Amino acid sequence: MAVTITLMVVAVLVRILVAMPIAQEEVERSTEDQTMSQATYVAQDIDEAIRARLLMVSSLASALPQNLLTQGDALEAWLGERQRMAPLLDRGLTVLPIDGNGVLADYPPVAARGKLNYRDTEWFQRALGSRGAVLSRPARGRISAEPILIFAAAVRDADGRARAVLAGVARLDASSLLGRVQGHHVGRSGGLLVVAPDDRLFVGASDPAMVFTPLPPAGVNPLHDKAMNGFRGSGITTNAQGVEELSAIASVPTTGWFVVARVPTREAFAVMQSFKRVVLTFGLAFSALLIAIMVLALPRILRPLSTAASAMRDMADGKRELAPLPVQADDEVGQMLEGFNHLVKRLREKEAALEASEARMSYIAHHDSLTGLYNRAMLEDHLQQAIARAARGPAVFALLFIDLDGFKPVNDAHGHDVGDAVLVEVAQRLSAGRRRTDTVARQGGDEFVVLLADLEQGRADAEAIARHYLQVLAEPYLAGEVRVNLSASIGIAIYHGIALSGSQLMSRADTAMYAAKRAGKNQYCIYDEALDSNLARLA
């Protein structure tokens, strides 16, 4: 009997000491993957926002009419029109002379700007020497002391000589840039950090008090030191406050920054710690129960106990699915089996919660939160797939860039709740009857993009669908008691064998959309190369 008791106790200890570390390793790996997914998603979102503003400034600098550089009022009006059409640069647009002294025009006008000299600023010098748009270092504005980023590009004449510098200013903590990071939690008590390594600053953080504070010195946080040297990934470290945490690091390529998603390990692995305590408690209780049973009633209970032990052993070894065991009697063995069954129930509940959380995170990462349509990331992925398919065979597809006409007055007159209801209805109309191979996505604001894959008739099919969309989008919208009438302008870019990137197709569809608006709105326009020069001449 002593040998049997010893063997049973040893069996329980083996399960605790061998199976638990394996389970803990799996839970830790899963938690690290989730945290890395959050860091990567936020980093990609920030990178997209930065690239969109660089592209805007570069496009505006190319489109700025040279004759306006000597007409201050007309130049200011031109800037105001562009600012209202695409307000990504929420602190305005400025045109600076090439000597950097004062301004030629700005919108909205700020008198203090004209008294500043920008000649020696690093972004001004880089803009003069670059053919594209450049990004300043994160800093506080000399006028407002707000945290800002400056996006700048040289305005060049036909010979390529710089005539002026166009600069756009955006608040760094705006909701469309890093503002969404503030207040964002990872788990219950974790958060996000956005680090500018070259400037040794936290430029964004879940805790607003950390924004624009210096990084900790080398040696305080080993994982942070590795990140500063180029490491990207996840790991466990001790932060500057002495708290052990799980951190995941992802790059923001355009800026050279990186995003850190972090959560205290006591929270990240709380489920596993609870599980270990439960297993340890039940293991010890089970051992004591076995000893008592063997001493008092071994002959009577040995058979059901052996059966239960064998089943549990099969579950632990993966030979049998984890499932409740039948309780045949209300005795010590039955109570032990009820405790095991309760443990199985709790494990399944936690597994279900974890799976639901992963599914939700996957949905959020690929869909627009308001309309449920695909977001820009999924649109780009589907667009790359369509390009790859077209490269392998004679496939034709089209990109429809749809912008609502007169949507801003809806928000101004009726509020954002009505505007959001209209956007949801627009999404439903665009999705109704679409083919399984098509992709409907929300680009942002009141802009939508439809990818029409595998068109048999090419241009004819794209035009037919565009006409259908113009018709259904022009039908009245009811948001509660409010009746709204809208129309749409649609730009079409068709891919038919010419090697183009996804961004080039998007740019062409966007150009065609603006041509449709200039032509009177509530119509569509198909891109051709003449549009670029026509729009530049009309701008």
Summed up:
By secondary structure, the chain is of the alpha+beta class. 48% of the residues lie in helices and 20% in strands.
Keywords:
539 residues; alpha+beta; Beta-Lactamase; seven-stranded antiparallel beta sheet; six-stranded antiparallel beta sheet; 13 helices; 48% helix
- Beta-strand share of residues: 15-25%
Broad structural category: alpha+beta
Rounded mean pLDDT score: 86
Radius of gyration, in Å, reads 31 Å
Number of helices, where a helix is a run of at least 4 consecutive DSSP H or I residues: 13
CATH class of the largest domain: Alpha Beta
Low-confidence stretches: none
Tell me the total number of β-strands: 20
**Share of helix among residues?**
40-55%
Please report the distance between the alpha carbons of the first and last residues. Answer: 95 Å
CATH superfamily annotation of the largest domain: Reverse transcriptase/Diguanylate cyclase domain
What does the largest sheet look like?
Answer: 7 strands, antiparallel
If you consult CATH, what is the topology of the largest domain?
Alpha-Beta Plaits
- The CATH architecture of the largest domain can be given as 2-Layer Sandwich
How would you describe the shape? elongated
| Integer count of domains | 4
